[in-house]
Specification:
Blueprint (H helix, E strand, L loop, with lengths): L1 H12 L9 E4 L18 H7 L5 E4 L2 E3 L4 E5 L9 E5 L5 E4 L6 E5 L4 E6 L2 E5 L2 E4 L6 E6 L2 E5 L11 E4 L1
């Protein structure tokens, strides 16, 4: 009986869900109806962002990723033990290019946390390379990205245009 109580107590202290550890693949030549595997990658980083959960890694193959407004809008978080990681398969090979139309490369929604973004080239966006304006955003790692050509249009706002809006 004592052993059963102790095991119940230990089990109650463990997390209810295990941290997922999937790798999702993205390739501009893929399809968002694919499962996101190496052999059948997603086409957009947004589709991968919608699929990824705590502990998952999204690997972006070389190519140009674009969108009309935000290229990636994140609403999911990782955990302290299971960060969500987005990385270019080859440093600088995956390019988020706003082509002068998109406003932001990466948007982190309210409360998003425990996310790492590394190895991308981010360019030609109207406002921000990284935007954390959602509020309550914390524990982000933005590493080894090449950010340039941001905010090259006239504006009458006083808040400016930036590579990272914190």
């Amino acid at each position: 009986m004592i052993l059963k109580c102790c095991l119940s107590l230990i089990a109650s202290l463990m997390p209810l869900t295990a941290v997922a550890q999937h790798a999702f693949y993205v390739d501009p030549r893929g399809s968002d109806s694919n499962p996101g595997t190496r052999q059948a990658p997603f086409r957009t980083l947004q589709r991968a962002a919608d699929a990824a959960g705590a502990g998952d890694t999204v690997i972006a193959k070389a190519g140009i990723y674009t969108a009309s407004e935000r290229i990636v809008s994140l609403s999911r978080s990782g955990t302290p033990a299971g960060w969500i990681t987005f990385r270019s398969e080859r440093k600088g090979g995956a390019i988020l290019d706003g082509q002068g139309r998109a406003t932001e490369g990466w948007y982190f929604g309210p409360g998003v946390s425990f996310v790492r973004v590394e190895g991308f080239e981010i360019r030609n966006l109207r406002q921000h390379g990284f935007d954390t304006y959602g509020g309550g955003v914390h524990d982000l790692v933005i590493a080894h990205n090449h950010v340039h050509g941001i905010g090259r249009y006239c504006t009458d706002t006083s808040n400016g245009r930036t590579g990272a809006s914190l």
